[in-house]
Amino acid sequence: MEPSEQILAIRRSVALSRLPHVSYQWITGTGAFEALNRVFSRELYVRDGQLVQGLLLDGEGHVYADCVVARDDDDYFLLAEGPDPRGLAEYLSLHARGVDDFEIVDRTATHDLISLDGPYAWELVARLVGQEVVGLPYMTFFHLDGLVCCRSGKTGEYGYVLIVDREHSETTWNSLVELGRGFDAAEASLEALDVCALENWFFNVRREGRARVTPIELQLQWRLSRKKSFVGSEAVRQRLEEGLTRRATTLLSKEPFAVGDQVSLAGRVIGDIVNAAHSPVRGEWVGLALLDLAYAHPGITTLRVGPERTSARTVSPPVLQNRSLYVNPQVHSYASREEDEFPSLVVP
What is the dihedral of CA 199, 108, 80, 142, to 10 degrees? Predict the structure, then answer.
């Protein structure tokens, strides 16, 4: 199935994805909190069963990993994108040096992660694990029959991540594929997930995360604590004191552009593209650019991008009205979708 068809499935029904690029680390022991708190960019006072989005930074304040931390009783687990499992474990061990009684257990090799995304993802998950999943709040999780079900996702639609031990993961995947036939479910690639994330202003550590800037330029301030010190926090504070010169901004264009293309206004270079993809829903190219601060706002319609001088405009994200904003699990279902009226997916 083409990526465009996968994306349309995410926007209209549901798609299944395997997530081998996500590292799964378990941190245990009485020192688990202190070890994680040294590196995690947000406050770590989370309840049992709660997930929290944050970052791991390097010493210069640049993003090292995009991660979610969860508290499970007195232990914690970490789902991270960016470094490989070995690199992540080494990073955690290095910066937790001196902390007593904690252990890092890499479960990436013993467990698989499966995601479900789409306006009817909740209905498919409920067929697998039971109706109680429908009431699961965003950024929480629960255990059931040997798997962990996390309510999360980066597409702007209903999203779930299932953590399944390797012994049962193929059976779980096959069950989802079989149940998914009633939802016209598709198997979505990482490429398709990344396009949906870009449409909805979700951070991508493999694209804009490679830019040598801090979370401030990337508009990820909400993922940073100003109350505690963590790896990279001093570099971020210094950048704030110096003042920003650039900021991440969303662009749209009818014509293609690519990562690395320069953005110009009236003949002057004002930034460059750090993420770009074609949106089959909009029929346009969506991009993220690091622009000079004076121009890093929506409403500029006369930009030129790349050597072809493609015409582009700045906009406020998200660039779609996700169907999940209007689908109510108490009222709607995939079977009766033709009887329901929803706003257009495309933001005017």
Answer: 80
Strands 303-305 vs 51-57: parallel, antiparallel or unpaired: unpaired
The mean pLDDT of the chain is 96
Quickly state the pLDDT bin for 1 (edges 50, 70, 90).
confident
Count the neighbouring beta carbons within 10 Å of the beta carbon of residue 98: 9
Signed CA dihedral, 237, 241, 242, 246: sign only: positive
pTM across the whole model: 0.96
Kindly tell me if the per-residue pLDDT of 132 is higher than 90: no
Cα dist from 71 to 49, 161, 348, whole Å: 6, 16, 41
CATH of the domain at 160: 3.30.1360.120
3-state secondary structure of 42: coil
Q: Is 232 in the same domain as 133?
A: no
92 and 72 in one domain?
yes
